[in-house]
Structures are given as structure tokens and as C-alpha cells.
Design goal:
CATH topology of the largest domain: Rossmann fold
Helix content: 25-40%
Number of strands: 32
CATH architecture of the largest domain: 3-Layer(aba) Sandwich
Low-confidence stretches: 42-47
Largest sheet: 8 strands, antiparallel
Number of domains: 5
Radius of gyration: 29 Å
Shape: globular
Strand order of the largest sheet: 11-10-16-7-8-15-12-13
Mean pLDDT: 79
Strand content: 25-35%
Number of helices: 14
Distance between the termini: 60 Å
Length: 602
């Protein structure tokens, strides 16, 4: 059994693409976690989609043995975390399982927005930080300037920072020595009764639910009877193990260690992330504080293009939710799109990844409705309802006011792009709260409505700044807004799949754009089709699709032709009026996709 003083638990934090997973690879190689034959790039990114996109989505854990220069053996528990803002909940819970963090900053790019967000999360829970300057093998690397940025923007001393290269492996041994020297060992007592934090859980088709735990006090071993404090359910531990990074069975996990247990649980809902696990025979009086549950912030409808794929989509969502409890779904039906699901996501990248996995892993052709956020609708009777889908908005006469979510955004950009970024933020109803400089880079703080950011803000930011700006946000509150429901009517009937919540100032221009787009995308029918955008009963934009005119007069010749022609035209007119009343307008799938593209280009 290792001494608790020889254990180091740390998370690897950084902005996207600053080299977290690559440095984790070099550390695994250095400590001999895998043989040369088993080694591959980004070994901790296990999903195909992670490897293809070169991003980390799920935080991964690995336990390594390292022999220090002082001759002592150490156990290193490393958690490689995601860098993207959508997956910051993964980072926050990983940090709770550790005593320190290794902060990686790309020495050619400098400090970026997500670097700041992750460091502040780590500092909030009193982590020791080891700064690492990665990519020193690149010609654009500027170590001195990057150190200055870390000190100016974050306020961390960089005297002991380590230059390294995840590509060549230079500086990896120095990182390990610095971690042993700087980071504190875990606190906790082996003699105490078991107190364990549930860090993560996922579903394995052979083993059932695998539970990742951090032992705070005591120890956990095979055949032990344990209790989940949130549900008061009791289970017997069937298997105890660690990831090296391959799963390896051990007899027990002791104080300060991170590993996994298997208890035969089949349902992921029984293992709440952040729960406290204790000995069933010696229950604890109070649970650990745990972490805030992740809440979906972006909602959209997912519908199968072929309605016969509905069951396949339902099964696919259920299977994906087994390994990603952070997205939610419920059945919904639309008169235009048929049966589908209303799904909640942590952000647009999360939405994109889930839809991509559904299309790839379950072979479903999907249609995604306009993404929207959760509004709080305050009614005259004092009640408040959460609105995820604009089509379920209560009658306007019952509404007192509507609140929308606002975010605090941090944008870091080279100062030559500052003017254009401020203009975009103002167009999105933003309020500037702060502007500071570090060298030639500006750190800009804005408060923005999430609804304005959710579509295309990030893409716009990247294209305006040639990819140099970085962006991070956190939700701060809900504020009252002058919001209206924009309904789209085709032939007098409201199409619920195209309705959207929008700020009153932008409603008319958006309504006109949608009507113009639909005019191009809906094919002509035998009758005239009016396309209208409306707020309540008020029409604010209109386009018309002209009907086909069938020539009914060609074969009429001879006497009395004028009267016969008039009669036929009157008959045709009546037929068109009747067709307009009862004829159904077929809205093709391309029309919905086209309208969604408008929202993304807006």
C-alpha cells in the first residue's frame, strides 16, 4: 500500500488545442504506462469523434507509477480535461477530485479565454498551479512574452514555469519533478470510516455502470457493502480497479486514490455525479458538498427525415444518454415534421457532436430545428414557467413579462480587431463591462443575451479576427427582455417548427428574410400561397407564391366562344378558391433546412 505522501492527484487544464492530450501521451510514455506498440496519439481520447476532431469531450483518468530523481516511487493520478466551453462541467468536477492543476499554455498563442476560465475554476477551490509552456519547438514560440501574459492576465508567478514540447517530449521529466515538488499530497485518514466522492459514471455493455471515485477517507475494497447517500440505496462492490490507462483490477482503493468500482448497477440514473459513497455498516452523518449539476442551455428539436426512423432515433438517444447524462430529451410532435424529440444541450458544439454521433453510429438522417434557449415566462397569476419551445408559449394576455438568460463573455483578441468585435457585440445587444490590455492583446468583457450568441457569434468572431480571437462565457442571470414570438404562416396556417422567440427590434427584418427564403424553397401549387410572418395577430411581413395557371381556353372555337370562355374562367376561379381553402401546402424538407441556415448566417 503506497504512503499517502507519495500520491499526487492533478488535472491538466488549458484552452482548446494547447496540447493537453499530447502532453498526457508523453507523460504516459515516460512513466511506462503503455508499451511502444500500444502507444498511439491522444491515447486518452477514446471516442472516434474526439480523435477525428482533435478535441477532448470526456475527461479521462490515468494512474501512473513514477520513480523520481530522489529515488522515491510516486503514484500520479492524472485527469485530462476538455478545453471547450461547452464541456466546462467536465473540467469543474475533475478539479474537485484533485489537489492541484497543471496549466498548459501554448507559447506561440499565449493566454486565451478558456485558459482564464479554467484557471479561475482551479483557483476558486485552492488548487496549486504548475504553469507549463508548450510547443517550444515551433518557430513562432515566444516564451518570455507568454510568461508576461500569464503574470499580467492571470496573476500567477511564472518563475518555476517549465518550457516543454508535447511533440518531441522535451521538458516532460522536469514537469513530473515539478509536480512532485509543488503539488501537495492528498489530505485524509486511512483510519477513518469510508468517505468517497463519485466523480463520473458511464455505461459499459459488458460490466454495467462503471463508477469513477476519489477516496477522501478510509478505503474501499471488493465485496464491501456501500451506500449512495443521495438515494440511500445499498450495493455490494463486485470489482475495484484503476486505469493505467488500461483497466487493471486491484484489491482496494485507499485514502487519496482515484479509481473505479463496479457494483452491478444497470441504470445510470442511480449514480448521481457528485454523490457521496459511504460504508453501509457505518453511514456518514453529512455528505460531501458535491458539484452543481450541469443544466442544458440550448434546446432544439431533432426529427428523422424518414418518419420510419423514429424508433431508431429513440433507441439512439437512449443509448447516447447512458454515457452522457448532460443532455436531456423528451418526445414532441410537429404538424410539419411529424414525430421527434425536444433535446437540451450544453452548447452548440455539444449539439453538433450528439447529432453527428446519431447520424454516424445509428445511421439516421436527421433534421434539426432552430436552436433556442430557455426563457422564464412570468404569468399574471404569479406563476413562472420555463419555455424551451416557442410553439408552447402561453397566450400573450396571460403573460406579465418574459426573462431571457444573459452571459458574461470574455473575449481575448489582438487589438487590431477590437473595433469590429465591439461593433458585433453592440449589434447583439451587448453591454461592455471591462477592457484591459496585455501587450498587444485586448481582454474584453461583455454581458450578452445568450439567444444572440447561440447561433453564429463564435463563427463570426473567428472570421472577423482570422481565427486569432478566443471566446469563453458563463451564464450569470435571467433578465427581462422585450421578446416576442415570431410565427410563420403558410397559406394562413401557423407552422410551429418555424416559430421562434426573438427581440422585438429584430422581428420585422427576420420575418422578411424567412418569408423571402420560403418563397424560393416552397414549390408552386395550383393556387396562390401567401407566406406571412406575424407577431400575435399582427402581420409584419408577407410574400406570395403565385399559383400555376392552367390554360382551359385552348380548345374553344366558334360561336358563343366568349360566353363559354367566361364560364370556364369563373369555374376555374371557384376551383382555385376551394383548393386554397382545402388544399394542403406541401413544405419540402429543404425549406426547413434553408430557414435554419438563415439563422446560422444571420
Amino acid at each position: 500500500m503506497p504512503s499517502i505522501d507519495h500520491i499526487r492527484n492533478f488535472a491538466i487544464i488549458a484552452h482548446i488545442d494547447h496540447g493537453k492530450s499530447t502532453i498526457a501521451d508523453r507523460i504516459i510514455q515516460k512513466c511506462g504506462g503503455l508499451s511502444e506498440r500500444e502507444m498511439k496519439e491522444q491515447v486518452l481520447d477514446s471516442m472516434d469523434i474526439e480523435r477525428e476532431r482533435g478535441i477532448t469531450i470526456k475527461a479521462q483518468t490515468v494512474r501512473l507509477n513514477y520513480k523520481s530523481k530522489n529515488g522515491k516511487e510516486y503514484i500520479l493520478n492524472i485527469i485530462d480535461t476538455p478545453g471547450h466551453v461547452d464541456f466546462s462541467y467536465e473540467v469543474s468536477r475533475s478539479l474537485y477530485a484533485c489537489e492541484g492543476s497543471m496549466l498548459i499554455v501554448d507559447s506561440s498563442q499565449g493566454v486565451e479565454a478558456q485558459t482564464l476560465a479554467n484557471v479561475y475554476q482551479a483557483l476558486d477551490i485552492n488548487h496549486e498551479i504548475v504553469p507549463v509552456l508548450n510547443k517550444i519547438d515551433l518557430p513562432a514560440s515566444d516564451i518570455d512574452n507568454t510568461k508576461k501574459q500569464i503574470e499580467d492576465v492571470i496573476g500567477i508567478d511564472t518563475e518555476n514555469s517549465i518550457p516543454c514540447s508535447g511533440k518531441t517530449g522535451e521538458g516532460v521529466e522536469e514537469i513530473l519533478e515539478q509536480i512532485i515538488k509543488t503539488l501537495p499530497p492528498p489530505k485524509g485518514l486511512t483510519s477513518e470510516i469510508l468517505k468517497c466522492l463519485l466523480v463520473d459514471s458511464w455505461y459499459d455493455s459488458y460490466l454495467g455502470v462503471v463508477i469513477l471515485v476519489r477516496v477522501i477517507d478510509g478505503n474501499i475494497y471488493k465485496n464491501m457493502k456501500i451506500k449512495m447517500m443521495s438515494s440511500n440505496q445499498e450495493y455490494v462492490v463486485e470489482k475495484v480497479g484503476v486505469f493505467t490507462p488500461k483497466p487493471k483490477d486491484v484489491k482496494e482503493l485507499n485514502t487519496g486514490e482515484i479509481g473505479f468500482i463496479i457494483t452491478g448497477i444497470k441504470n445510470l440514473s442511480e449514480t448521481k455525479v457528485g454523490d457521496t459513497i459511504c460504508d453501509a455498516g457505518k453511514p456518514l452523518k453529512s455528505a460531501l458538498p458535491g458539484f452543481k449539476p450541469s443544466k442544458p442551455v440550448v434546446f432544439c428539436g431533432l426529427f428523422p427525415v424518414d418518419s420510419s426512423d423514429y424508433q431508431k432515433l429513440k433507441d439512439g438517444l437512449a443509448k447516447l444518454q447512458l454515457n452522457d447524462a448532460s443532455f436531456s430529451y423528451e418526445a414532441e410532435s410537429s404538424s410539419a415534421l411529424g414525430l421527434g424529440f425536444r433535446c437540451g444541450f450544453l452548447g452548440l458544439l455539444h449539439l453538433e457532436i450528439i447529432t453527428q454521433r446519431l447520424e454516424r453510429e445509428f445511421d439516421i438522417n436527421l433534421l434539426t430545428t432552430t436552436p433556442g434557449v430557455v426563457y422564464k415566462v412570468h404569468l399574471n397569476n404569479g406563476k413562472t414557467v420555463d419555455l424551451q419551445n416557442p410553439s408552447t408559449l402561453p397566450d400573450p394576455t396571460h403573460i406579465k413579462f418574459i426573462e431571457e438568460p444573459w452571459i458574461k463573455a470574455t473575449i481575448i483578441t489582438p487589438d487590431q480587431y477590437l473595433g469590429s468585435i465591439i461593433k458585433v457585440c453592440q449589434n447583439k445587444r451587448g453591454i461592455q463591462t471591462n477592457l484591459t490590455y496585455s501587450g498587444n492583446r485586448a481582454v474584453l468583457n461583455y454581458e450578452l443575451p445568450l439567444n444572440e450568441v447561440v447561433f453564429d457569434f463564435y463563427d463570426k468572431l473567428k472570421s472577423l479576427t482570422s481565427g486569432y480571437a478566443s471566446f469563453d462565457y458563463e451564464i450569470i442571470c435571467h433578465r427581462e427582455g422585450d421578446l416576442v414570438k415570431l410565427s410563420i404562416l403558410v397559406n394562413g396556417e401557423s407552422v410551429d417548427a418555424l416559430s421562434m422567440m426573438i427581440h422585438k427590434d429584430f422581428a420585422q427584418s427576420q420575418g422578411r428574410i424567412v418569408c423571402e427564403k420560403l418563397k424560393d424553397l416552397i414549390p408552386r401549387h395550383n393556387f396562390m400561397i401567401p407566406l406571412q410572418a406575424a407577431i400575435g395577430g399582427k402581420i409584419i411581413a408577407r410574400e406570395t407564391i403565385k399559383g400555376f395557371k392552367k390554360d382551359v381556353l385552348t380548345k374553344i372555337h366558334g360561336g358563343g366562344a366568349l360566353d363559354r370562355k367566361r364560364k370556364l374562367l369563373e369555374k376555374q376561379k371557384k376551383g382555385k378558391t376551394r383548393a386554397k381553402q382545402f388544399g394542403k401546402v406541401e413544405i419540402p424538407q429543404e425549406a426547413f433546412i434553408g430557414v435554419l441556415k438563415i439563422n446560422k448566417q444571420k
